[in-house]
């Protein structure tokens, strides 16, 4: 979710050339990305850069939905078409399902969404309830945050918590207070979109701290490098939260490359760009190392061709440097 | 439960740990006693959680068509993940309620299905009660962009050839060529072949030829009984242009099967082509013997 402002190039810091060779051979897990908003070119680039798995949290679609059917179709797309689309590029697609904070403010609709959620959260590959939490920090947001925490507890699922842009530090503390009040184990809660201001408390209280590398409005990856230097890799994970705004689906591999350049040890990079997300969300029982190791069958079983993206297990590439399309 | 269904249940059970199978049978038993939609939805969705032994990497093939109690048509279980096999078994246990209740019970599963659930639901088309009522659902599934879902209907499934009308059947076959499916494993391909389909396939062949894309040789086998001048011209041209052996074999075979005079003449004039009539190892090897 970005606010686009024209920015002077000079104010954006030093430009570092894109060298993904630095992370060749590493595997990445982006635990927060909204692939419904991204193109096949993004999937291709992510696969090329070493992204082998993603988690797509349910969120709002850039404007408020007006009916329950669009919610249902959206949730269905996360466990259906989007899962299949990712598989064509060898990327494992998981999701978290929940009512986002903005739309929690439409209470009449929110009530209907709450009735819908149990049909989705027990699906295969649903690794948590998310992204839920606060935006404006209204009473309605709090009500549905609490109800969904209960739902997650009952289902034994991790929770992916969106923290607010405005009044962030207080909103983050409050999100954690409420989770503890409902008896959730902080080890089952991933607090997302952290900053330098929030990270210490999140880690001290035993929660997972996720950082979103998102241009202009959230973390930059130079700051991320410094944070990892300061706090180490434990319970920290990096994501892109790439969506329909000006965002970057390669934020995780790019951040890893910058970490390599900055002399961060490889084990640390693997932890924050792969292992910690796996550890946190595998608590759902829907995800494990073996599943990620298993080659997504870009095979006869999932072959998709003719009018489309894959043919006989080969991913045809668009030649972006040619004006010929054939 | 009669022997037929017992044997399907036994086959499924042999892939599932004893404790898990018993728990699942108990759940299904409760559902049969009180068939509530939510109960079925919970059992159906939770199978990967309740049947942990349903390893994701394991693919199962059962020999021959699998008949189940009261099911209108047999199942063909070929390279199914175990979760699909178990889910389809659960669906065979759904009691034949009044038609509207039965349909809404199953339809509800379709409207909330993930990729693998949808594949199981469509693979189960042959075993649903009120078989004629599932035509529109079947047609909807053929439109799916999710390959595993579409394939669960198009390939190794007895339902479409038994229940789709000609227009819908032809769409299935055209879609199968378009998405590069395993054409010889479409059940009923020979029995349901028809003039309109053959004409549409030849049009498609012209389109592919103009785009310089490959043409699946099976297309010529389906076109064979209905060859005309338009088809013949393109086939002769492709024999000259395309070097692929299987393409040559398919066209020569189609010419030999055809009653269209110029096609037979072409083979007579080019006697060296008769060497290509050997069908061993081709996808249409058992075409003449097919009856379904």
Automatic annotation (TrEMBL), chain A:
Source organism, top-level taxon: Bacteria
Compositional bias segments (type: Basic and acidic residues): 316-326
Give GO terms: molecular function aspect only: hydrolase activity, acting on ester bonds
- What CDD domains does its record include? metallo-dependent_hydrolases
Q: Name one Pfam family in it.
A: TatD_DNase
Where are the stretches annotated Disordered?
306-326
Q: What is this protein called?
A: TatD DNase family protein
Q: Per the UniProt entry, what species is this protein from, by scientific name?
A: Parapedobacter koreensis
Question: Which lineage is the organism of this entry classified under, starting from the top rank?
Answer: Bacteria, Pseudomonadati, Bacteroidota, Sphingobacteriia, Sphingobacteriales
From TrEMBL, chain B:
Q: Which domain of life is it from?
A: Bacteria
**Do you know which InterPro entries this protein is assigned to?**
EboA_dom
Q: What is the protein's given name? A: ERAP1-like C-terminal domain-containing protein
Source organism per UniProt: Parapedobacter koreensis
